[in-house]
Amino acid sequence: MTRLSVNINKIATLRNSRGGNNPNLVQVAKDCERFGAEGITVHPRPDERHIRYQDVYDLCKNITTEFNIEGNPKEIKFVELVLANKPHQVTLVPDTQGQLTSDHGWDTLTEQSYLKEIIAVFKKAGIRVSIFVDPIEEIITAAATTGTDRIELYTEMYATEFAAGNKETAIAPYRTAATLAKKLGLGINAGHDLDRFNLPYLIQHIPIIDEVSIGHALISDALYLGLENTIQLYKRALSHHSS
Fold it and tell me: Can you name the CATH fold of 3-237?
């Protein structure tokens, strides 16, 4: 069954808006695990506008499920942070400086040499590597030559088409990409703009997805529904038998 990793960036944003430590990021992560999440994801950025570098150290000491750190490995400070904490997984994302949110995957063709080098650094440290990619067959094929363990399919296009009612158009390139990735021996993650409404269709049609990472929609739902109930709703949405 597909695993749920909760991205807690938005909790850090709320905390930072007033200073202090309310809400307590570590406690929220532990509660997410207690409520059924199978992993915790963070995406620290250079300006530390949500997740701070110290948060990563604090979380690493307390997370008992899987810890996934996302970020751009072209930032030396990020590489040092990951190697110092040795999470279960690092997800490499080609963000630009000051980017609001991730909005594209790696060009695994032109960046292939670089990706091979940096992925080897993390794998040597015993860290599973996933790279953020768009659902394009040539990109997936090239990703398989970089040494990465997994890809994370960037699902904004899926979410947009799904919301517009174009379900088959939405799922088609992702189903093709996932099938190819599996054939090439890659694990498959997915993330960005996924929510409890579009998740069931995604998982029904691509049950081979290993993990989804969800933050914004899940935390937004939790404002109305409560964190424990929301996590359970997302777990239910990930069931292959969801309607």
Answer: TIM Barrel (3.20.20)
